[in-house]
Amino acid sequence: MPFLAIGSSGLSSAKTATSSEVVDKLEALGVDQPLPNDYFQDRIRLLVQSPRRIFAYWEFSRDPFESLRLSLGSRSADYSLIVRLVDVNSNTASIHEAPFSRNYWFACLPDRTYRAEVGFFAQGGMFLRLLSSNEVRTPRGSVSPRRDGSPEFSTSSDEFARILEQAGFLADALEVSLEAADEATKFRSTRLLASQLGNVDVPDLTSGEQAELRGILAAMAMGEDIRLVLDELSDSLREWLLTLLSQRADLSQEHILALLRSLLRIETSAVPHHVQPKGAVHAVVGASEVNLPSPPIRMWMPSMTVGSLKL
Amino acid sequence: MPTGYFSLVLHAHLPFVRHPEYPEFLEEDWLYEAITEVYLPLIFILQNLHEAGAAPRLAMNVSPPLCEMLVDPLLQERYTQHLEKLISLAEKEVDRTRREAHEFAPVANMYLESLSSARELWEHRYNRNLVSAFRSLQDEGVLEIITCGATHGFLPLISTSEAKRAQIRVAVANYWKHFGRQPRGIWLPECAYEPGVESFLAENGIGYFISDAHGILYGDPRPRYGVYSAVRCPNGVAVFARDLETSQQVWSSIVGYPGHPNYREFYRDIGWDAPLEYLLPHLHGNGERRHLGIKYFRITGRDVPQNEKLPYNPNAARERAADDAGDFVYKRIEQARSLNALFGRPPLVVSPYDAELYGHWWYEGPQFLDFVFRKLHWDQDEVVAISPGDFLDLDIPIQSQIPSESSWGEDGYFKVWLNELNAWMYPHQQAAEERMTDLANRFTSPDPLTHRALNQAARELLLAESSDWAFQIFQGTTVEYAARRFRSHIRRFNHLADGIESGSIDLEKLEEIENRDTIFQELDFSVYRS
Prior knowledge:
The complex is a heterodimer. Chain A is of the alpha+beta class. Chain A has helices spanning 64-72, 157-166, 170-185, 188-196, 207-221, 235-247, 253-264; strands at residues 43-50, 53-59, 79-87, 92-97, 103-107, 113-122, 127-137, 267-268, 299-300. Chain A has a four-stranded antiparallel sheet with strand order 4-3-6-7, with no helix packed on it. A three-stranded antiparallel sheet of chain A has the order 1-2-5, with no helix packed on it. In chain A, strands 8-9 form a two-stranded antiparallel ribbon. Chain A starts with 42 loop residues before the first strand and ends in an 11-residue tail after the last strand. Chain B is an alpha/beta fold. Chain B has two domains: 4-71 and 129-261 and 315-411, 7-stranded beta/alpha barrel, CATH 3.20.110.10; 419-528, Families 57/38 glycoside transferase, middle domain (immunoglobulin/albumin-binding domain-like, Up-down Bundle). Chain B is built from 19 helices and ten strands. In chain B, helix 1 (29-52) crosses helix 3, helix 3 (73-100) packs antiparallel against helix 4 (105-125) and helix 17 runs antiparallel to helix 18. The chains are: A alpha+beta, B alpha/beta.
């Protein structure tokens, strides 16, 4: 069909092109120049991007180095400008050199409260705080550990795992299913699973660490790289996991799924490796990426109640 | 008692794009395409369903900027001209395909017919006012129209509570202007929620909002019914969360309905395929190729290259839409039965979608919806279509919960709107937000000229806050336009604020700014007071 040939421009979204030769009465407010670099205020703000990433930006009304030089003279050379991220509850902080760009992306933990500060820091520990930000709380990024106190809305771990599975939240469903299994067997299920992974003794764990361990197992079953979250783990769990990984470099998702099947009768359908279904097209405006939990597999979990589990 | 409830929620939003300073403007096409391909078909279909007694019932957000554009005389006139140009092209195509391309003739005729109907509806049935058409559908009990942020501002990234509050207050006032009543619910922009947002909603009489699935699933405490019932924040505002199964059935390019080979291929458009000279009278003055909405090919197959696609067959596509609608309804029944057995009570399945999906991205989308509502009404009685407000009226006991921070953007939090590409925007936005409240607090009884400037400054701030700009910059779609819009509104705001503070307002510039950024004529700057 000679008429309708493929167009040349690669079928992408519309380019922005405007009519030229227009007298623009607002030309003096030129929009093609960058916006002002400074507002000459003392300001610092902390913003959440995601459970593990937050962003700070700041500005000074006047050059802080100048003030420092005026008060400390030559000793000001001992100081460098740093940005500090404070974990409000544990009162711990990390320190980073403050870049000229006056902003910083921090890696952080979920479900914690943070504050950012900018100031001068000298070797030997002196910190002169100049700016202190708002506090933010990072999202938990996972299900709540609490069930509703009222009988009307209380839900057992077993039931909640089923709800998560119905909703397509499979990693969370698996984790809560393990929680249900642990409740039914006084934590024997997860310990058994973990001990079968390799020849490394599972240490004694607090209930918080037990929850972390379930999270690790669920993540591994979903094919995620556990090494990415090592820093978040408690010391004993991290040590256990590192020993295990060094001993079993071949530890795979399939292995975990096989264990889940044999020990707990949890079945999963074929697991495509991180298939990310994108939306039909990228919309020009408005429409956002759909958060389809990936991969789109189905999972069948038996009821994790006392008496149904044969461990 | 039904086995389950189903609530379709459509989100119709476009950023406020209006450029009177140019005779025509490319980005205004977003509105014109949406009117032709989405809003007119949806309104028409819903009215027919209603008149036929099919009792369609759904919620729909028609955002404030969209409402404002739909009632703007300049844009209405430009749309009329846009439609005329398209119809004249369709007429040429009917002629051409009859002469030299018979296999495309039915499709050419289809476009001429549907575009002519669109003109008839636009001019005579709706008198160019689609807001009043939406309003009628609400007044007749078909639509539950919900509001949105005033300019679709991303609330968790707005720096002051006054500015967050203003996004809601201005939206509600604008809703009263267009729809003559209080909005029952809100589509939070990007479904972006952080704990605390609900207090601004309650202050403004809003009873519910829509969130993504993990808003409730990750909420505290654990939701007894997952996303299959509403929950209530401690202050009473209800939350409805998205069901991902229905999302996937429609959105997913892998398993979703719109990917079927019989459906129309989006990317084979006459605007790219036809010789340029032929198209020139129908393009913008700059003669650049663009999508025109006349497309002749069907998807044919997922891996079929564009130059091997086969001609579109409207009847086959329509049949496919009917089949997919049947499948969708069947799956809703299955889903309702399985959830009802699990919970011991009827579940509510909430399915929010961008309205643009139905008609623009998925051409047969409106037909699909038509079939869905017909089948829901006439082919079964287990699943009932309701709105979120209807669910609240059922007085089913609702669990109290603090939802989780969330959005429906990629990865589920705020990454799309705050990342390395667009983080530069927020210091400027914050400075303007703080300065606006400062001005609003200081000027308690401004003289008329200052009052005008303050109101216009408020408009500029609202327009700068549109989350669309940060979104487009991240997505890489219309980066230049989005960045220019953001900068222009910050610049205009700063210019006006400087004039207000120094007591010397440039009247000529104020008038020019007012002539362009006309949104929210009813706005008063005092909404920014502490």
